[in-house]
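agent> call fold_tool(seq_1)
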Amino acid sequence: MRRILVAIAGGVLITSFAATPVVAAPQQSPKSVSYNEKLRCDEGSPLCAEPVDSIGRDGSYTGHDEPSTVFYSNKTGAGTNAQYQLTIPKDPIIPPKQDGTGGTFNFQNRIAFWFGIALCDNQSAPEFTHAPCVAGSDRNISDNPDPTKPDYVGRHPGGAFMELQFYPPGWAPFQNGISCDARKWCAAMAIFSFNRDMNAGVDNNAACVAAVGLEPANFAFITKDGKPQAPAAPLSQTTASFTPDPAHDLFMNAGDRIAISIHDTPAGLVTALNDHSTGQSGFMTASVANGFAQVNFQPTATTCSQSPYAFHPMYATSSEHTRVPWAAHSYNVSFSDEIGHFEYCANIANGTCTSDPTDPGSPDADDVGCHTPAESLRIKIGGCTGSDADFDGPSYLADWPGSNPNPFLDRLLHPRSVEFTSPTFNGGRNYDRVAFEADMPRIEAADFGGKCDRTTGTNCVNPPPGAAFYPLFSIRDNNDLQGGGNDGCVWQLGGTHIPGTTNTFGGTTTAEFGPLLFLDYPAAGFKPNHITNDFRRVIPNPCRR
């Protein structure tokens, strides 16, 4: 099953700009299918941030599997800036085959991996107040379950979530697929908001729901000059917004070593990439000048509008209490891999799998969003990108780096792991704690076809039912496998047999991701909904330098 898309610290007021709102254009005819429509979160776009409640048609869930690491520090600045060193993962020597007997490429393990941070958006859920959000302030923390208290979770300021997403090459291209190039990676800034009054159970007006759904997204590729190649705002996006431009966008090679900086500026949040391997760089600023905007929450209006808006980090720190209360995950500063978005399909008609010899049960409900071999930029195999609800695709097989104990075979058949350092902030300060968090309870719930009772935790299991394998995080001491240099301790994702691994944190996903996490979410009637969406385990950061 699939999804795709999508100096202020210390109390500066962030307000929307007094400008003429942009009003939604009429909807296109159903026969005219654009990529902008494909990105809609309520229609299963695989790059969207995962909401706590169902937003799909007829109550069907829209979500995906996201094993994550979350970084915590109670020091001011930990929630407003983060710097990483990343090594882009390589694909194996042996290419994939249609019958599943070849190698496994990155696009089969993941639809994207990303680095995230929580942002202000006073037009986004919980929608208790539209007062300006005070950026970079822990006064925004509101997670009390008592509705009579001023820090009740339902009184939380409106929040958005930014994902700096990296897209693997080699398969079906943007606009409808996931690859920017046959061999090169690209990245984008995607900011997700949620237009629902969670305390009253009221959604935005029908025109907005029709135009952008309940989870509108600002989207812009990382470009070499820092200017969007096309409109970024939800109501303004065009097909060009999702069409990679090699002359304008930053493309990266597998194995390149990238310095990542996520930091705030007076103009808006900046995501900057410096490719040490090629000398190229790119960035994007979530600013008014770059055309970023918030969709206005006006549930009684007859038209949909947006206002220019500069997005800034919500919190001063990053802790167990800094979260976006409409999201299924509990995090702020974080890394996540979006897995479970590829299944083989040999016979495809109208974007749907009709049959596949490798899966005797096909087609099933997750065999959608499919692409024929002819659509691929490089690897000529057919497959589907819908969310893998029965957990039987390559993401849930021993097709990850380090899943084969024979290192020679592992390298022949499996991609290298993504490698990244623990983030630092304020010029090199380390985060004190790290959490392993996986949203298995959310994707095992009834609206995803499972049996997990999120209220009690009954039948919420790790690993997911039907999964023959599930990747886990581990660390190694240096980065010499992929590009030389030494970053000290680096994080990786896959099996337990990645050469050089020094700690697998229990060696199983059950041990690593820990117990069920129950949190309070705003709910209709101004009372909390106490449920589980994740497994989470918090430990001291083993990669502090």
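agent> call fold_tool(seq_2)
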Amino acid sequence: MFVVLGIVGVALVLFVSEWLPLDVTAIGLMVLVIILEPWTKVTPTDGVSGFASTATITVLAMFILSEGVRQTGLLQRLGNQIATYTDRNPLKRFSMIVGMSGSAAGIINNTPVVAMMIPMVSGIAKKTRTSPSKLLMPVSFAAMMGGTLTLIGTSTNILASDVSERLIGRPFGMFEFTGLGALVLLFGSIYLIFIGRHLIPERIKPEEDLTDEFEMAGYLSEVVIRDDSPLVGRTVETVLNEMDEDVDIVQIIRDNEVFPAPILNKQFRVGDLLILRTRRDTLFHLMDTAGLQPAAKARITEEDFDIEDKGEQLVEVVLLSENPMLGETIRSSLFTQRYDALVLAVRRRGMNFTDRIDEIPLQGGDTLLLQASQRAMKRFEGNRTFVLIQESEDPAFRREKTGLALGIVAAVVGTAGLGITSILVSALAGVFAMIVTGCVQANEIYKSVDWSVIFLLAGVIPLGMAMERSGLAEYLAYALADAGGNLSGITLLFVFYVFTSLITQVISNNASVILMIPVAVEAARLADANAFSFILAVTFAASCALLTPVGYQTNLMVYGPGGYRFTDFLRVGGPLQIVLAIVTCLGIAMIYGV
């Protein structure tokens, strides 16, 4: 038991510190649990069973189903209609965005919903002259709450259902807790619409030029190569390699033709107009040593990056927590060469970095300001470890497949909800239908899956087994019962909700479910309470981590695009977390009993 407690301690340290990616940590824990089989009681077969669990396969299938809906461009079209319909009514616009995010997350996994809504909401903000800061955090919060409507709303629900079946023989039905989830979404939405929206700061000004938004005014300059310049005849790559300065050649303009970065093989010529990204003191030094003179243009704006004939423009992308470049710098990751896009600035925790950005180790939630081509934008759109903020100018959506994709999702939900088949079978059948009808191409299904979530699920499931089989869950439940004295059932339920919501702020929501459900079940048995009610409390608490931007993936996704600071989530999410704790626990007591 104490060996397993030590493993749990190691798990918590690694999850909180993020010294390793969460999925790598989970696989390491799986290996450790198997190696220590004499103490954990988890055999190698049990240890790898997470890869074949109902939860893991169902979550994998849901990612592909969500991709089928995304490929239709449905949310983007709805966003355009919302912008038109609510142009003069901010309250109605805010309410519709919250309602759309919450309801969509009930039938599509909430993480893809937020990924699809970020560019849509950013477009609405620009069209209606609204700060994106005012709209993006509510999208994340509403999607989390909407994820509690059905079994497939979030991977947490599916994993909790698997654990519930193993511990008490009762999995979740498709609409097992829809009534409770509706209460959560209703009261949470009321808070966001009438209270929360007034607490959200306007970190990004409406319609602000991207160069202003990232505070680039002092770092972008236009210069001309003089006829006595030592740069003439030499390539960009050679000059940059020899130059020990923080400078990027953003564009070369020659004979009214624009050559955007990366342009390493281009040779400098007399009269070339250059747009540079560098500090003012470095610029003055280059004028003296490189034969440059200032151009007539005094200020570089976003319009200077919009090159229609080459499909170039300024864009923002967010790095998610599973991005393989985290910990690397822009230079060491060869970002420019790999993605054919030049990084001009980095936003992190509400702060903009424009100086020596090539040397900054990248972190999850970073927003990068890029000069990028349409081809590069397509790469970012197709990569699940990035979120592209701007909507693509010419998206190749399969609009004709909208009815098919929605019909397939409805069939998956309906057959599982009516008990005709299990959610596993209906989801896999839905994946097959998406492929054969052309809603998703065969080569897109692997890209659509968030493999870090799959490996995280598979890795933490054996840890839950070890907690149960070693007696650790029972021991912790006894310790909690002794500490709580003669707490009533509803009070104990509230304690588990609050504790789970707190630890979910710093570790993965799926990991917190694995750790807390076995303890909650044992505590319910000791208190002669309804174990299923306690499982629901833990599940709902783990699904609504509102206090920090790192507590839930969707918060991290909107963190950079909204320009938020770390404390903004506590300011808006703190009161909402209290509201949801009360509503959820009282709702469980009324509907399921304690």
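agent> summarizing second result for user.
The beta strands are 220-225, 247-254, 257-260, 273-278, 292-294, 313-319, 341-348, 351-353, 367-372, 386-388. The two ends are 29 Å apart (CA to CA).
agent> awaiting next instruction.
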